[in-house]
Amino acid sequence: MSAVIDAAVQAFAAVQSWIFLTIVEPLLFRFDGAGVMEEAYDGIEFFLLGLVQIAMLYAILRPLEAWRPAERWTHRRDVGVDVLYTFLHRLGLFSLGLFFVLDPAVDALAGHLRLEGIAGFNLDDLWPGVTSIPLVAFALYLLVLDLANYWIHRGQHRLRWWWALHSLHHSQRQMSLWADDRNHLLDDLVRDGLFASIAVVIGVQPGQFVLLLIATRSVETLQHANLRLSFGRWGERLLASPRFHRRHHAIGDGHEGAYRGCNFAVLFPLWDVLFGTANFEPGYPATGIRDQLDSDGRAGRDYGRGFWAQQWLGLRRLVGR
Ligand SMILES: [Zn+2]
Ligand SMILES: [Zn+2]
Question: How far is the CA of 92 from the centre of ligand 1 (A)?
Fold first, then answer.
């Protein structure tokens, strides 16, 4: 078994250096980018990990979707654009790029504040030595960042301008393993920017950040899959399942009521339980937004079918059209 893993790791490293030497390095020399060689090399690693992750999730989830779908469809027309979103976002170095931009900026700011006699925040301050125990540090960061994700997501539903963008994510009536990254690019920028800033501020190291992203996104892919799958009475309360997140996308429950929705947690439903937004009602309801439905003969709101239409209509909603 370890021989197989070794071979895989070696193959991965070989592909990484091949891409670097034949494509990225010549480009960087050409465009005066010799200063970011190291970041570019790490970037390729992230890109390849993204590819491997998508391939593995597809290999596992696609047969499960075919076997036990939450919903049977007569066509898969609307899934195609979500595949595009997934490749764009997961391989587009979006969050990682932001992290590498923000990391030195926050370091510089922290250095400046220290000169002024103001100390920065780090988990080590609360619990000395904790960040040198990798597994504990990882678990703590995961928890803190997931809490941040919960409140970011509440904001996406609560603030009018943010919902104008986030509603694109909710407009998918055919949820599938590809649906997670169906977002407005501006929404991605704000959300990923906030997420990476919080990660930098609490002292997450770049290597850990990549692992945190991979863990979070794997669960996100799973919970959007068209799967008749719940984790059972207690499991549902420990980790967000496809059924739990489907309720968040349900017409009516997902974006209406006192909190403009329910089940906002990305990983841990604990936050929804604590802040009164959990809904563990059984069933696999239809997904979408109420204003997409026809009302008294008139067609509902159109969120667009193709990528550019969706992005454009999102901008129009943002300015109140
Ligand atoms: Zn949402
Ligand atoms: Zn979702």
Answer: 22
- DSSP alpha helices (H): ranges in 128-205? 134-158, 160-170, 185-201
pLDDT at 118 over 70: no
The alpha carbon of 255 is separated from its chain's Cα centroid by a whole number of angstroms, namely 19
Please indicate, yes or no, whether residues 200 and 307 belong to a single structural domain of this protein: yes
Q: Are 224 and 245 spatial neighbours (Cβ–Cβ below 8 Å)?
A: yes
User: Is there a domain that residue 242 lies in?
Assistant: yes
Q: What is the pLDDT of residues 133-150, one digit of tens each?
A: 778 888 999 999 999 999
The answer to the question of residue 4 being in a domain is: no
Distance 273 CA to ligand 2 centre (A): 18
Query: How far does the centroid of ligand 1 lie from the alpha carbon of residue 249, in Å?
Result: 7
Tell how far the Cα of 171 is from the centroid of ligand 2, in angstroms.
10
Rounded-to-integer distance, Cα 184 and Cα 186, Å:
5
Residue 1 lies in a domain: no
Give me ligand 1 centre to Cα 4, in Å. Answer: 40
Are 250 and 108 found together in one domain? yes
> Distance, CA 50 to ligand 1 centroid (Å)?
23
pTM (2 d.p.): 0.84
- Give pLDDT tens digits for 72-117: 888 888 888 999 899 888 776 565 566 666 666 666 766 666 666 5
- Kindly state whether residues 57 and 106 are assigned to the same domain: no
CA of 306 to the centre of ligand 2 (A): 19
CA 271 to chain centroid: 17
The residue range of the domain holding 222 is 95-318
133 with 44, same domain? no
CA of 8 to the centre of ligand 2 (A): 32
CA terminus-to-terminus distance, the chain = 58
99 and 44 part of one domain: no
Total domains in the chain come to: 2
Question: 109 and 145: one domain?
Answer: yes
Q: Is 59 exposed, middle or buried (0-12, 13-18, 19+ CB in 10 A)?
A: exposed
